[in-house]
Design a protein that fits this description.
Blueprint: H1 2-9, E1 10-15, H2 23-36, E2 41-46, H3 48-51, H4 58-75, E3 83-86, H5 92-101, H6 106-110, H7 113-119, H8 128-142, E4 148-150, H9 156-172, H10 174-179, E5 191-193, H11 228-237, H12 256-269, H13 273-280, H14 285-311, H15 314-343
Parallel strand pairs: 1-2, 2-3, 4-5
Bound molecules: adenosine-5'-triphosphate and magnesium ion (MG).
Adenosine-5'-triphosphate binds near residues 15, 18 and 154.
């Protein structure tokens, strides 16, 4: 079926405007976004409705939305050939999320580890949006019938939930779906694309915690906006162990911090951990960290400079987002309309 081929080729992913983008976002997500442009039709979304599941200062939210957009473009995403927009400008995300609130079972949501981590001890006081966040994420993807979703390892569980939601919708409404002309199901089951040596970049201060925008200490992460000296200082101070680097990947087992730095190097260099250890096996951390700082600065500081340049023209960024939203609408509206037909919701 032609529609199925289209399902397969469309890519969707999002980044939250919750603060400074860091090396984890860059290696785990954005570099993949850039690479997929060659072969696929891509939608890259600044997911502002996800960001507000935790309180955001309005002025900062606006600024961060523009900054993520600038980071996409500075990293090599082409907003003319592909679609770059902010989520809240396409109302279908929220509408389909409501429908999925009614498809997802509470038991499914109760298994989500991100909610447990983000809500922390005071779960009663977390927003209900944070709890149903995975339903909105499923809506983001399925609103475009996107079937490929490049994400970091931390989003794997949410992608599995999105597949369960698509499957349940297809089963629950199988009869009307077939009548509407979709014998193989209406929503495709989206596939996560989680590849390469840096799918889960860890905090520089604690090899058991993921590098995050929302982590309090700036020393835990390298931001795309950091200058060369800041990058060098953070890498020099990164936690390690006293042993030199091993010469093969097996030697990284139970050395989380060492494994993290080797993965970061491989991600930045576009090679593998094996290649990095072939070159640096036996080296001390002081030597390796120096090489890593140099590589990170060479890759990241030009992007940081370009983000700054783009941020000096917010009107142009807003224009790009509006243009992207209009094109996103054109794909989303017929899919949402068909969803309503399938469910028996009257529309004109
Ligand atoms: P927050 O702490 O606000 O959730 P975040 O750093 O997790 O911020 P997101 O906007 O939630 O960033 O995620 C954007 C993309 O970056 C997702 O695809 C996510 O999987 C990926 N990502 C986030 N952190 C990492 C990381 N440490 N390593 C690899 N990929 C990551
Ligand atoms: Mg996150």
């Amino acid at each position: 079926m032609q529609e199925t081929t289209k399902h397969k080729s469309r890519v969707f992913s999002g980044v939250q405007p919750t603060g400074n983008l860091h090396l984890g976002n860059y290696l785990g997500a954005i570099t993949k976004f850039v690479a997929l442009q060659a072969e696929h039709e891509c939608l890259y979304c600044v997911v502002d409705l996800h960001a507000i599941t935790v309180f955001q200062d309005p002025e900062e939210l606006t600024r961060n939305t523009r900054e993520v957009t600038a980071a996409f473009i500075a990293s090599g995403i082409d907003p003319d050939r592909h679609i770059v927009f902010n989520q809240s400008q396409v109302s279908g995300h929220a509408e389909l999320a409501w429908i999925f609130n009614c498809v997802t079972r509470i038991g499914w949501l109760n298994r989500m580890t991100q909610f447990k981590e983000k809500a922390g001890k005071d779960r009663e006081n977390a927003s209900s949006g944070l709890y149903v966040y995975p339903n909105l994420m499923a809506a983001d993807i399925l609103l475009y019938h996107a079937a490929r979703v490049p994400v970091g390892e931390d989003q794997k569980q949410h992608l599995e939930l999105a597949r369960d939601i698509a499957q349940k919708f297809n089963n629950d409404f199988a009869e009307t779906i077939a009548r509407e002309g979709y014998p193989d199901g209406f929503f495709p089951l989206p596939e996560p694309l989680i590849t390469g040596p840096a799918t889960r970049v860890m905090s520089l201060r604690d090899g058991t915690r993921k590098m995050s925008k929302s982590e309090d200490s700036d020393m835990t992460r390298i931001n795309l906006s950091d200058d060369q000296d800041t990058i060098a200082k953070k890498i020099r101070k990164a936690r390690t162990d006293p042993e030199p680097l091993p010469s093969d990947v097996k030697g990284l087992a139970s050395r989380a911090e060492a494994g993290n730095l080797v993965g970061i190097y491989a991600g930045l260099a576009g090679t593998t951990k094996e290649d990095v250890l072939r070159e640096f096996g036996g080296a001390t951390f002081s030597h390796f960290k120096e090489a890593l700082a140099e590589l990170a600065a060479a890759k990241l500081t030009p992007i940081g400079g370009e983000i700054k340049r783009l941020m000096s023209d917010p009107v142009e960024i807003d224009r790009i987002l509006a243009q992207g939203a209009e094109r996103a609408h054109a794909i989303a509206d017929p899919i949402l309309a068909k969803t309503k037909d399938i469910m028996g919701l009257i529309r004109n």
